[in-house]
Write the structure tokens for this entry.
Amino acid sequence: MEKAVKQLKDKGHQVFGVKCDVTNEEEIKSALDQTYEHFGSVDILINNAGMQHVGPIEEFSTEKYELLLKIMLIAPFMAKKHVFPLMKKNGFGRILNMASINGLIGFAGKAGYNSAKHEVVGLTKVAALEGAEHGITVNALCPGYVEKSVNIPLEKALELVIYPLVPQKRLLSVDEIADYALFLAGDKAKGVTGQAVVMDGGYTAQ
């Protein structure tokens, strides 16, 4: 984190870095409170922590399943719980939950990941309704296959997954996902809330 903070400061940005265990509610609240105290507001919250574990349900450990839910479902819930009062003070907020197409359709072997992402989409809708009259929007961004997230060589991924399954026959870039996140966090998207916004090269249109 220190390296990232330094890089941003070197570019002239105002930066305040706080380490936080997203499975610890006290640390989440402290990080948000410190940020509010430093800047005078918390305008944007992006819930982006995640991990993956793959295996059939009968072999999927309960401990691993619970950990995935803690990181990708309970952590975003706790962050919303403690950021809402801060955003309400300023009458403005943009919350973005990094979901996935795994939050819209099923994938064998991904019991924990799929469960968490589906529930995050549901939580997004609830939070959007509760935040609407306070100037707070809440959306879930649901990317498909992304360049740097594929765990096999690129050529193999293209041959086995992307060309047969993705109509655009390409992987998403990290930059285009970041650009969409910035749009959803900006003023031009103030009417967009409670949505699972899909970026998947046409995968879920089939």
The chain has a mean pLDDT of 94.
